[in-house]
Amino acid sequence: MQTLSSEAEHLLSTAPDRLPLVQSGLQPGVAAQRVHLQDAAVLFPGARHSQAALAGLLLRAGYWPESHTVAQDIESAEGSYWHGIIHRMEPDSFNAGYWFRRVGKHAIFPELLRRATETLASGGPMHWRLKNTWDAFLFIEWCDEAREKRGQAEAAAIEIQMVEWQLLFDWCATAAS
Fold this sequence. Notes:
By secondary structure, this protein is an all-alpha fold. It contains ten helices and no strands. It starts with 5 loop residues before the first helix and ends with a helix. 40% of the residues are buried.
């Protein structure tokens, strides 16, 4: 079960509906500063990875620098995963690849693969083909392509990235079973 503090719920409720493929460099707002300064365990009581959930929350709210600061100090697959997403959005594909190599195989990959398959079946670029397992490096390439080509590729990449964000955030913010 996922439990968020009122501060975390407020910041999430004011976040944009979608994560862009390129970070927007928003200036920190008062809500983000308050959230960033709080103890992650208080923001996400009982969470599997409260610091990682905080990195994800800040990223979703558009506070890229703050998210990066939190993620770079997390020595886990989840911290590396957020760090990889952050650098993919920078965009710095080489650096993103470094962090995704540190992730290895993550528990959200099977569901991410399933949902990405659905997204592509309902209107993704015809030449995008998934492998039998989730490939974060292939997705970095797709995001690079989508930033250049826009249209269908951009829409599919943004939708997959949003699914990825939600799955990873839920994984981090939910209590371990």
